[in-house]
Write a structure and sequence with these properties.
The protein is of the alpha/beta class and about 260 residues long. About 25% of the residues lie in helices and about 30% in strands. It has one domain: Carbon-nitrogen hydrolase (Nitrilase/N-carbamoyl-D-aminoacid amidohydrolase, 4-Layer Sandwich), CATH 3.60.110. InterPro entries: Aliph_Amidase/BUP (IPR050345), C-N_Hydrolase (IPR003010), C-N_Hydrolase_sf (IPR036526).
Length: about 260
């Protein structure tokens, strides 16, 4: 299975512009034979820790406008994981939607949101793609090993980790390297491949992100890492077949 992690400039309150970028990237991914493409946390509307901003930006998954936008990202081959603020009644979630052929086929809500006003998700779905199964943890979820373990126990061989490490400059510097090591810890703990997609750039308030997009194998080896301070795309071919069982970290194979 061919996967891709997109590291893109953060856009804020520019859903139409973000959708244009998404449509372009998904079309490129299809042309490259990408089976699964990952985009950053809250990428669609722009991330915020402010409760009022998150509520204003949030969209319901049955919103016709959202589904029209997603329809513009249609691809017959490439499945895309896209972060957004989601509205469910009066509750707001930091979610990631799974999009296939221009339709939303699933959603995961962040179990441990740091964003003010966001409700924790409680479900840990997985999706089948060819011979692989994948699940989603969002950013800080990786600090809690059980979130990845639950996906692994359900048969996931790949964990997608949309992140948004746009922080105050001193915190952005402080979390850049630990962000990568967190992916390695998750991979070794769960026995899964892990790929992360981060934003890069800055906002009007002076916050910035260096970009910590990476792909890590089940032994914790970083097999691909994005260039810091710039947009990038990581493409990697996972093994042809995902067997049932757990990855043997010493042998480097999946035990059947």
């Amino acid at each position: 299975m061919r996967i891709a992690a997109f590291q893109r400039m953060a856009l804020f309150d520019a859903v139409d512009r973000t959708t244009e970028v998404l449509a372009r990237d998904v079309a490129w991914a299809e042309a490259q034979g990408i089976d699964l493409a990952l985009f950053p946390e809250c990428y669609l509307q722009g991330h915020s820790y402010n409760k009022a901003i998150a509520r204003r930006r949030a969209l319901s998954l049955d919103d016709p406008a959202l589904n029209t936008l997603i329809g513009r990202c249609a691809s017959a081959r490439t499945t895309a994981v896209i972060g957004l603020f989601e509205r469910r009644g009066e509750a707001i979630y930091n979610s990631a939607i799974v999009v296939k052929a221009g339709h939303i086929i699933g959603v995961y809500a962040k179990a441990h949101p740091l964003e003010s006003g966001c409700t924790p998700g409680t479900d840990f779905p997985i999706w089948a793609l060819d011979d692989w199964r994948f699940g989603i943890n969002i950013c800080a979820d990786l600090r809690y090993p059980y979130t990845a373990s639950r996906l692994a126990r359900k048969g996931a061989g790949l964990i997608c980790n949309p992140v948004n490490l746009m922080l105050r400059p001193h915190k952005a510097e402080m979390w850049h390297r630990p962000g990568i090591s967190g992916l390695q810890t998750c991979a070794k703990h769960s026995g899964c491949w892990v790929m992360a997609s981060d934003v890069v750039g800055s906002n009007d308030d002076g916050w910035l992100s260096y970009g910590s997009s990476a792909i890590v194998d089940p032994n914790g080896v970083v097999v691909a890492k994005a260039k810091p301070y710039s947009e990038d795309v990581l493409v990697f071919d996972l093994p042809d077949r995902q067997h049932e069982g757990k990855f043997d970290q010493k042998a480097g194979v999946i035990a059947t």
